[in-house]
Design brief:
The chain is mainly α. The protein contains 6 helices and no strands.
């Protein structure tokens, strides 16, 4: 029973994140709607705790987003997973401290890697399916907006989380020595 409730909790979490992602795409105005909510959630979970379930969360969110996407199936999942694996390696080996600079840099790198893999895989699949392959300057403008807004959202979440955790920390309360 406990495992069923845990599974239901995870499914509701994934559904909630997917609803937020779809809502941000549809209801925000033009440049703000480029927030990549699944990537923000996965990066935030990597910052908070870097366990295996973060990769599983990234896979489930990418799969759910892929089902609602008009792109070829698998391009978004592979792009998300490769960027998440690379950023997980980067966070565990190079960007080991959890500062605002690490959050800023890792978000920029992950969005760039995600979009580069996405464009490369889209180009690759369209090339072998004999579809017209054309990229315009608007793609790079959209990538720029995605970098700006995804990074700013994650930095704001990090700052709010840091403030809340700092206020809830009881480390400043001194312990009384008990002497007999």
């Amino acid at each position: 029973m406990k495992s069923i409730l845990r599974l239901l909790e995870y499914l509701l979490f994934y559904f909630f994140i997917l609803i937020i992602h779809i809502s941000s795409l549809n209801f925000f105005p033009y440049p703000v709607n480029h927030i990549n909510v699944p990537l923000v959630v996965v990066l935030w979970l990597m910052i908070v705790n870097s366990r295996f379930n973060v990769l599983l969360t990234g896979f489930v969110l990418a799969y759910a987003s892929e089902l609602l996407s008009g792109n070829l199936f698998g391009v978004g999942i592979l792009s998300m997973m490769l960027s998440v694996i690379f950023i997980a390696w980067l966070m565990s080996n190079l960007l080991t401290n959890r500062t605002i600079y690490m959050v800023f840099l890792s978000t920029i790198i992950s969005v760039i890697i995600y979009r580069l893999f996405f464009l490369a895989l889209t180009f690759f699949t369209n090339f072998f399916r004999d579809l017209a392959v054309s990229f315009s300057v608007n793609i790079f403008v959209d990538i720029f907006w995605e970098i700006i807004f995804t990074t700013s959202v994650l930095v704001i979440i990090y700052l709010i989380g840091k403030k809340v955790i700092k206020n809830l920390n009881t480390g400043y309360v001194g312990r009384k020595k008990i002497t007999f």
